[in-house]
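DOMAIN: structural biology
WANTED: fold as tokens
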Amino acid sequence: MRRLSIGIAGCGVAGLAAGALLAREGHRVTLFERAPAPAPVGSGLILQPLGLAVLGELGARAQIETLGARVRRLFGRSAPSGRIVLDVRYAAIGAEAYGLSVHRAALFDVLLKAGRAAGLDIVSGRTVIGAEDGWLAFEDGRRARFDLAIDALGAGSRLSPRAPLLTYGALWASLNWTEGFADDALEQRYERARRMVGVLPIGRIAAGGAQQAAFFWSLKHADFEAWRAAPLEAWKEEVLRLWPETAPLVAQVRSHEDLIMARYAHRTVREPIGRGFVRVGDAWHCTSPQLGQGANFALLDALALSRALATRSDLAAALEDYVLMREWHVRLYQLASFLFTPAYQSDSVVLPWLRDGLVGPVSRIWPAPKLLASLVAGMWGGPLGAIGGCALEGPTRLS
């Protein structure tokens, strides 16, 4: 592929990863961000072995490893019974396998540095409102022409069809880590599927910083304003009733503003590519975070696009290859999330009953542990094999 001029809309995980990888390949890449300066949004996430492999390709894995917390188990109990209804162990797919839980700010900083080192040009304060045939249109009325325009604006992209919101979202906070929780596990407590509280170790934002935890509480979008209007102490009492041991974390929440409402959507754009145009990450596919794959899929999209452009001399053919590399994996996980999410976030009475009485026990019987761990690790559908040229290395090599 000849050297291209590429314009990227959006400075999230997808945009930064794509920009860094493409700039490293020698393309002239400009990334546009509407904020006055690039900055992360959100709390914690788990980088799966596949996402870590992509960061390895960027030469950024060692840095993020020093900041994150290795997660080896996803564990949840139903209240008030205390019954274990989620128990996924990475060891089922490899003795030394793990996910790396990180603060979004840490991942953002690592990707930003990788992009700048590769020659990525970042322009702040520019809001992209349209894209067509390689043109990017800005809110101030100006336009810019590129060989390829990339939509990396996420689920709320104005360049993609509107993504319908799911009924449930979640309140998130990044808090100081406290003893009493497993430092290598995502722990959750559920009350049917209407209430969920979770604690995830997320390491440090920067070297030498304090260890942090991501704390989250499921909440309907329609109930957010009522939650903000109600006394914070009433909400704290509800959390502690479900999981009393979270008291040291809950005590750190001193106002409603300490919690950020995350709104989730579910859709896959039917046409992720056009003439001189392509979508990556949530702008193409977004879903519930139950399987924790958003950032990992964005990283895989970025790698696939870079590979496709590197191996094809024709741009249109390269974009078609990109879709072929990613489409099966994306659709498989969209389906899995669609089926999986209502058992943990919905108003259903029957699904949580089935989850607690059937799915929980069965999940501990062979071959379910390996299948579930593979699902959580993002391995279903063989995404790295479809992309090619990238392998799992070191302690995350899987059996």
User: Anything to note?
Assistant: The mean pLDDT is 93. The longest strand covers residues 168-176. The radius of gyration is 21 Å.
